[in-house]
Specification:
Elements lengths: L2 H6 L2 H14 L10 E5 L2 H15 L5 E5 L11 E5 L6 H10 L5 E5 L6 H4 L2 E4 L12 H12 L12 H11 L6 H4 L3 E6 L3 H16 L3 E5 L15 E6 L6 H7 L3 E4 L5 H18 L18
Helix pairs in contact: 2-6, 2-7, 3-6, 3-9, 7-11, 9-11
Length: 299
């Protein structure tokens, strides 16, 4: 088993610890605050998911930006940065530029890195740190931590993190469908907060397996992207399936994946496992993906 696969399997336990940690952490956004969430790569996609979930929960206007594209002059009550390594150049530069002007909170896996001094409050999720270059468990654990901090989301149809962890236990063990393993192309779809998960699923497949993947908001899929779907190709929906979409995918000959009873964050685990399986089938090392490093540190 690759190190990446082993880390993927630990996510249910990590999420439970994250929910406990969130209950004791004082630096999370408060209801009513105007918040921006930021990160790079996978962390940016988790920021997108959290921002949509927080705003949908009625807890305040919440934006998400790649750290390199952050509108520094815009007014916020708090900025939340996600950085597994604690060393990513764009995140550290952004936090430095915000110092003293707006409260900042960072989520990291490594307490011995510059982010500890760069942010005003830091949540250290070191139990979810990874040896693998490709992020899996830290990203989902960071989102579970932030999600738990939002409290009861049942009005949105979102399960408590503890229940999501139960779904995750099945997601790390159940066999992946042959139609998904044998496809030549995958399009990941989401609505609201699950769009960030769709973006992350596509990235994971590209990073680990060099796969041809695309990601879109589910309702935008029929405005052009569906043209790429056909026999031997997959459309994978995170969360509730929009009305009529199943028929549209069937009409063009594609294979639809829609586990509506499964928590979408747990469903992301299945996409992570698929990325590892595809990488190994191609003779790639999922622990050492091509052209990638654990952290981007610019000169």
């Amino acid at each position: 088993m690759s190190r990446t696969a082993a880390e993927i399997a630990t996510q249910p336990a990590c999420w439970r610890r994250a929910a406990e940690a969130a209950a004791a952490f004082d630096g999370l956004p408060r209801p009513g605050e105007r918040v921006a969430v930021t990160g790079c790569g996978t962390s940016w996609f988790m920021a997108i998911a959290y921002a949509a979930l927080r705003e949908a929960a009625g807890q305040g206007e919440t934006d998400a930006f790649a750290s390199s594209e952050f509108p520094v002059g815009r007014s916020y009550d708090r900025v939340v940065a996600i950085t597994r390594s604690g060393t990513t150049t764009e995140v550290l530069e952004l936090l430095s530029s915000l110092k003293g002007s707006v409260p900042t909170t960072a989520l990291t896996a490594d307490p011995k890195t510059p982010v500890m001094d760069a942010a005003d409050a830091v949540a250290v999720l070191d139990f979810a740190d990874e040896e693998s270059v490709v992020q899996t468990r830290f990203a989902t654990t960071a989102l579970a931590f932030l999600r738990a901090g939002l409290g009861d989301l049942s009005a949105l149809g979102v399960k408590p993190v503890a229940e999501a962890a139960v779904d995750a236990e099945l997601a790390v063990t159940e066999p992946l469908p042959e139609a998904v393993l044998g496809a030549e192309q995958w399009t990941f779809l989401g609505r609201g907060w699950t769009y960030g998960l769709a973006l992350e699923a596509g990235l994971k497949m590209r990073e680990a397996a060099g796969a041809w993947t695309e990601s879109y908001p589910a309702m935008e899929y029929r405005h052009g992207p569906i043209s790429i779907t056909g026999p031997g190709r997959v459309a994978w929906m995170f969360g509730t399936l929009p009305e009529g979409l199943a028929g549209d995918v069937d009409r063009v000959g594609g294979h639809l994946v829609a586990r509506q009873e499964t928590d979408p964050l747990a469903d992301l685990i299945r996409a992570q496992r698929l990325a590892v399986a595809l990488a190994e089938s191609k003779g790639y090392d999922p622990d050492r993906p091509r052209n990638l490093t654990r952290s981007v540190i610019l000169a």
